[in-house]
Amino acid sequence: xxxxxxxxxxxxxxxxxxxxxxxxxxxQTILEDAIKKATGEDVELFGAGRTDAGVHAxxxxxxxxxxxxxxxxxxxxxxxxxxxxxxxxxSSCEVGKDFHSRFSAKKKTYVYKFYASEVILPLCEFDAVxxxxxxxxxxxxxxxxYFKGTHNFKAFCSSGTxxxxxxxxxxxxxLKQDExxxxxLFISGxxxxxxMVRIIAGTIVEVGLGIKEAKSIKDIFASxxxxxxxxTMPANGLTLFKIEYE
Length: 246
Fold this sequence. Notes:
This protein is α+β, with helices and mostly antiparallel strands. The chain contains 5 helices and 10 strands.
């Protein structure tokens, strides 16, 4: 058996997230079906992380085991023949037996995109979210520093999240504006809680709108209460940007 690593990009709009679904279409299922058509094998695909319904990916990573004799570097081509246009495998390679797309990951980076406007900009709505035109970039940037480092992010995950610990480390966080006027919030960390990136984005947006003060973020962390943080931003603004391994 060989273990094959895939790097995958997809538009989340038409799917109920990455994971297999009893009622609805999961991206994992579509990929497994495509692999079966390419290899004739039933495989189990293991993803590096679960993306929610409507969330996109530029660099999702997954792996599976196979007896197929297809060249590892050409697996992506064979699989893509059976995939829709909004899901594509960007590359493929063979990895060692100890590799696991989820547990071997050292760093994950997400990007949340939004724009400030009085009206909806149709060409931006695909992967960015409109916020009030009064948004202040300079004010929002003051909030960034409070998220970097190791913290208890209990206030920045959805209520009822069932995990052993809510402590996570943010290695880097940046807010940039591109040439189209879209704000790109890049967040890199060792792992993320349910809706954590979308809630951090919502909190930073509220600071930019003057709803919250940047310095209040320290108190939000200390409170450990979800209601004190910003709103959960819509799913379509979130993209799994890349996953890094040693």
